[in-house]
Amino acid sequence: MAECDHGLDERWCTICKNGPTRRGPEPVTVVATFPARFPGDCPSCDLPITEGQTIHRLSNDRYVHAGCE
Fold first, then answer.
1. For residues 34 and 48, what is the distance between their CA atoms, to the nearest angstrom?
2. Which listed site, 25, 35, 39, 40, has its alpha carbon 20 to 30 Å from 5?
3. How many CB atoms lie within 10 A of CB 21?
4. In the chain, domain spans
């Protein structure tokens, strides 16, 4: 019985057979849409967010203008 680099029988090691599993980054989605209560900066367009503008809260905890997602 030959062992693989992972200390398993090479016939049954799924890592050696399939290669490492690669997952891409999680997609960013809009979590909520509401008017801004505080001033800030939009990381997408680098323009200021002013109170009252419609903004999105994204799944990566960022806040952007409604048109900048």
1. 16
2. 25
3. 7
4. 25-65
